[in-house]
Amino acid sequence: MGEPFVGSEALAAGHLTPYHLRSRFVAVHRDVYLPKGSELTAATRARAAWLWSGRAGIVAGQSAAALHRAKWVDDDAPAEILFGNRRPPDGITTWSDRFDDDETSYVDGVRVTTPARTALDIACRYPRGRAVAAIDALARATKLTVSDVELLAERHRGRRGIRAAVEVLDLVDAGAESPQETRVRLVLVAAGFPPPETQIPVYDEWGQLVAVVDLGWRDLKVGVDYEGKHHRMTRRQFARDIRRHADLTELGWDDVRITAEDSDGAIIGRVGRALRRRT
User: What percentage of the chain carries pLDDT values higher than 70?
Assistant: First the structure.
C-alpha cells in the first residue's frame, strides 16, 4: 500500500489488523493513512485530500496540475480541492466555485479539474508570476491550449479574479522548461522588449542541430539561456556548455547566459545591450 488509503476501509476488508495499521502506517488526515516513511509528494497530498473529503471533493489548482503530471509543483504546499467544507485540516485548502461537468475528469480514479479548468483556477487565484509559471508547466505536460482556457474564462465571466486571469493567459508559453525560464521571459516582457520566442532550434551550415536556445529573437540572432545548477555539476556538462556557446557565437548568435544570481536589472541590461548591438 504505497498510496494513501482509508484506514477503516482496509480494516473492514480484512487487509490489515488494527495493530498493523497502528504500527506500520501513519495518519496524514483523519482515517487516511500512508506507509511510514512514505514521501509526501504533491500528487500524494492530492490523493490523500480527496480521500479525506470522502471522495466527494474535486482535486483542483496546483494539486490537479500535479495529478496531470505537470512539473515544478511544490511538494510541501497544502493540497487544493473544490469542496464545501470550510474548515479543512492542516495540509488541505478548500474552496467552493461553480463548475460544469465538462470541467472535471478522472486521473487514476481521482476526480480532478480538467487541464483547462485547472489553468483557469490557477490564473484567478495565484499572483501573476507564479500563475504563469504554473500554467506554462501544465501546458507543457498536457495538450492544454490557451484558447481552451479563454473559452472557460468567457463562460465564467464575472468570476472573481477573471480579469487578472485574462492578463495571465496572454503571457503563457508552453515552451518554458522551468519556472526560472518563465521568470526571465516575464522580466523581459515587463521591461518592454518584444515577446521572445521560446525553444529556438539553431542549425549549422550542414543542417545539423547545434543548440536549442531557451528564448530569444530568431531574426536578430539574440538568444537568452538560463543556466541552472545542473549546468555546473559535472565537468562534462560544463565543457558541453562552453562548446555550445562557442558554436552559437560562430554562427552569429549573441547568446546571453543568465543564472539565478542575476537580478532583474542585470537581466534587462545585458539583454538590452545585446539587442542594441543587433539593431
Answer: 96
